[in-house]
Amino acid sequence: MKKELLPQEIRTRVAPSPTGPMHIATARVALYNYIFAKQNNGKFILRIEDTDTARSKQEWTDEIITDLKWLGTNWDEGPDIGGKFGPYKQSQKADVYEKYLKQLLNENKAYYCFCSEEELEAKRQDQMTRGVAPIYDGKCSKLSSEEMERNLAEGKKSVIRFKVEKKKVKFHDIISEEVEFDMALLGDIVIAKNLQTALFHFTVVIDDYEMKISHIIRGDDHLSNTARQILIQEAFGFPRPIYAHSPMILNPDRSKMSKRKNDVALASYIKKGYLPEAIINFIALLGWNPGTEKEIFTLSELEKEFSLEKVQKAGAVFNIQKLDNINGYYIREKSIEKLTELCLPYLIEAGLLEKFANNQKIVATGEEITKLKLEKIIFAYKERLKKLSEIVELTDFFFKDKLAYEKELLQWQKMSDSEIKESLLLCDKILDELNQETGEWNIKKMEEVLFPEILKFNLQKSYPENNKGFVMWPLRVALSGKKASASPFEIAEILGKQKTLKRIADAIKLL
RNA sequence: GGUCCCAUCGUCUAGCCUGGUCUAGGACACUUGGUUUUCAUCCAAGAAACUCGGGUUCAAAUCCCGAUGGGACCGCCA
User: Matching NCBIfam families, A to Z (predicted)?
Assistant: First the structure.
């Protein structure tokens, strides 16, 4: 019986360099790679490209790890660190690169270049002004082996260049389709500073080969790099992976999204209180759609419906309003317990609440806040929340003793101070009659007793009969100190009778 | 400057491959109305686009060519 060929395992990777906070575009590329691997029963790998020792920092590697885990795009492989998968790191593979570097040197496919940076820069400038492509002229490739040996023996500063074949490189791309580059327009590229320090183009090719990466899904900005990397692959006889270059995420002016014009760090979106579900959904939709009218996707739904073929070729402007909208949706979808848990750190960080070590007791201005009460507060604002951080400005008044607002805020339409006072006194009188001990202190009861009184009040004052604002507005401001809030009764119920009446009295004092 | 990529409402996009059903659909944002004490949610409605010019065809958003515009890359960064 004929032995069947095992289908090649699908292996994808995300390869960020830890030279700064993780970019939102990296998150999208990671997502694409993650989904593609999942869809094909493959493996998704995290590789830290930290060959630039001067700029790479461990803290950024840590942030990449934290961010990827936060997103839920966990990788499937890596060195064992305490029973978990760590990331692969290029900085730990210098010996591997050296081996391959020597091979290229021996086969005369790479050579030492002794040109100084100043010399190169001058040539580049000259080429630019002459209107030709600024490429390396291959000067050192023409050095005799004696000259080269002598330079090396003298310890003359050098780099290693790869001999770029002057031919056309054509490759297929899942998103861009057929792409062709004329390599005659590119000079020999520097692939290593020295035998111990290999550079980007080289390490990428070696690692993708050694890690058996089957599909390289990365940003559009790498499109022209791909041609070069293919040439290096060919020099070794490595198989060519399948490429997919996703379009860029753009600033509103349609330039590549950059930190100068936009918030690009995933960490800062996390901090503002965007949910991973929302970020995932939003970045997936940025440049992709299923061809149906469905727009809400969980990660597992994306695993079913996403396809690289349907990814746009053009870049997509990062539209924060859409993100906010999606985030609001996912916030509204959260259970109240979960949402409270998510909001709590923001309230604590703002100094509105304190949480004690046992995590059982939450305190605001010396008073204990029960979990139930906190949940009621969060519930009252759930629909108004676009991002978690907003919970602070929305609900701060619940946790304060004294409210600070301008007297004018109490005014509804053209009410005079004395009319506002009458209105508040009415609230005070009616609400004071409710008995909190017997459970009368609730929204329903308040509506029941106060609404008919409002009607009478309006009639007596010859206000429009159905406009409850003449009572409700001053009450809202008295209780919240804000012009926009949840229902005054909802606030009153949470605040309790004592605090409610105190705030009404405080408001009356202002008039 | 060179090379490559791209081009539908303000934005994300459907439609393009396989021309007619497109009076170009949806979503966000915006405007108006409804619900409502405010804001938000929710519901309803509205305004809003095929970059331009040629060609092919009975017929072009859709196919072809060109122009224009935008972007990316051209490093001893990744």
Answer: gltX_bact
Instruction: Note the pLDDT of residue A111.
Output: 95
Q: Say how far apart CA A226 and CA A235 lie, in whole Å.
A: 14
Please report the domains of chain A, with CATH numbers, ordered by start residue: 11-89+250-317 (3.40.50.620), 94-246 (3.40.50.620), 336-399 (1.10.8), 407-510 (1.10.10.350)
Q: For all residues of chain A together, what is the average pLDDT?
A: 92
Contact A327, A275 (CB under 8 A): yes
Q: Please give the protein residue whose CA is closest to the C1' of the nucleotide B11.
A: A319
Among residues A367, A255, A275, the alpha carbon closest in space to that of A325 is found at A275
Q: Which of A267, A238, A316, A321 is nearest to A20 (CA)?
A: A267
ipTM of this complex: 0.94
Task: Decide if A201 contacts A193 (C-beta within 8 A).
Answer: no
Residue A73 pLDDT class (50, 70, 90 cuts) = very high
The answer to whether the beta carbon of residue A250 comes closer than 7 angstroms to any atom of strand B is yes
Token readout for A347 is 């309230």
Nucleotides of B under 7 A from a protein CB: 1-8, 10-15, 25-29, 36-42, 70-78
Burial class for A383, CB neighbours closer than 10 Å (0-12, 13-18, 19+): exposed
How is residue A145 written in tokens? 């082996």
Q: Are A27 and A264 in contact (CB under 8 A)?
A: no
Of the candidates A90, A60, A87, the one whose C-alpha atom is nearest the C-alpha of residue A75 is A87
Q: How many residues in chain A?
A: 511
pLDDT of A357 reads: 55
Alpha helices in A23-138 (DSSP H): 24-39, 58-71, 94-106, 117-130
Beta bridge partners, A112, equal A160
The owner of tokens 């390869």 is A15
Residue A259 is assigned to a ligand binding site: yes
Is strand B in 7 Å reach of the CB of A486?
yes
Please, are residues A261 and A253 in contact by the beta-carbon 8 Å criterion? yes
